[in-house]
Amino acid sequence: MAPISVNKPNEETPLYMAFPDGVFHYVCAECTALCCRGDGFSGSLKREMPALLTLYPTLGSAVISRQGSRLEFFTPAGRCFFLDQDNLCRIEKDHGKALKPGVCSLFPFNGFTRIGKVVAVSPHFMCPIRLQVPARPGCVEGTHSAIDTAVRASGLLDDGYADEYMHPVRLHASLDADAVVNREISFRDVCSESLERKSFYEVLREESADSPALDASVRRATRLMGLEVTCRAKERDHIDDLLLALASSHRLSFLHLSSEAILRSLAIGEIVLRRMMSLSSLEMSPQGANSILTNVRPAIRLLARGDETIELAGNGNPKSPPFGDPNMSFAAFTALRKIADGMGVLDALEMAIKPDMTIPDRSALLIQVGYQLERTRQKPSKKQANRKLEAIA
Question: pLDDT digit string (tens) for 334-352?
Fold first, then answer.
């Protein structure tokens, strides 16, 4: 068999680490290999797969899809084919880490998002990553320089792989990709500098171009959820550091919103997170916080729109979700129709949600309405388009 080649680092594709340097750490020896238990893996015929299929011919029968040079493999529930009894990868033990599928060798820093030509790298929270505060770049696994080197050596950036499999995210019409990346780097660095020093909401207010408007919008959104702004801690605590560490990666799912709406989304997310953490007697982990914020994203993105309008493409009117309850169905219908007619999002929701609606119903309504709008094709408003043209000029 021909010797296995190791990919040379790709020095051209710019990377953006969507988390503060040195703030996340993990130790594989302390874990039961959660990343190797039933989620499958993928690899490229341009990189490691020819050698792996030669070494393990039977692996070819585990392919479930192919897209270009990329192969997707299933693995048994509970344990990857190559996960040995000692919870170590047999491929790595027998042939070295360079031959492991790229997504495996980079885990948990293998979340990739394209912002124009820049590849954003974010953590995968299946891993029991723990928060490291104060940050310790160079001493923990979440060190930017080490991850940068590993990503470039993996081959995932080579031969057009990034262009083929890492599709660019949708951006707000007022900014181009370079401006977005610069904004995100600046915000991440502010979060890094604020660890152990500032509250999360204090950082958001300082980043806002109109902090009183941010306060007012968050209060309205909180009332619509049936909550109180007093859910936010009166004094700085460990949740502030947790949010400062997580915020940059979560912002990647909000890049189609305006800069102020992104700040609103993070502020609303803090309100929800702090309320939900009261259910547990244990300290909130990065995994738990990430899961909560991910599950409520449709509602957060909806509420974060504030007074903005959403212009829908064509003449499509989103359908009301089937709640099985006439009052909720009517509330959703009212909100969606008013938004489709050009009313500001919070105004439409305030018209649709009656004061006596329960918190559970409000939660379900906001998430389903948010999800329904996200499924409906949207187009930028003329105002947004004009701002983008002015920025380009």
Answer: 999 999 899 999 999 999 9
Cβ atoms of 9 and 153 closer than 8 Å: yes
Query: Three-class SS string for the chain?
Result: CCCCCCCCCCCCCCEEECCCCCCEECCHHHCCCHHHCCCCEEEECCCCHHHHHHHCHHHHHHEEEEECCEEEECCCCCCCCCECCCCCEHHHHHHCHHHCCHHHHHCCCCEEEEECCEEEEECCCCCCCEECCCCCCCCCCCCHHHHHHHHHHHCCCCCCHHHHHCCECCCCCCCCHHHHHHHHHHHHHHHHHHCCCCCHHHHHHHHCCCHHHHHHHHHHHHHHCCCCHHHCCCCCCHHHHHHHHHHHHHHHHHCCCCHHHHHHHHHHHHHHHHHHHCCCCCCCCHHHHHHHHHHCHHHHHHHHCCCCCCCECCCCCCCCCCCCCHHHHHHHHHHHHHHHCCCCHHHHHHHHCCCCCCHHHHHHHHHHHHHHHHHCCECCCHHHHHHHHHHHC
Look at residues 290, 384, 230, 355 and name the one whose alpha carbon lies nearest to residue 19. Answer: 290
Task: Evaluate whether 244 touches 206 at the Cβ level (below 8 Å).
Answer: no
Per the confidence metrics, is the pTM higher than 0.90? no
The encoded tokens of residue 12 equal 């051209």
pLDDT digits (tens, 9 = 90+) for 121-153: 999 998 999 999 999 999 999 999 999 998 988
Structure tokens at 212: 């009183």
Tokens of 39: 């989620």
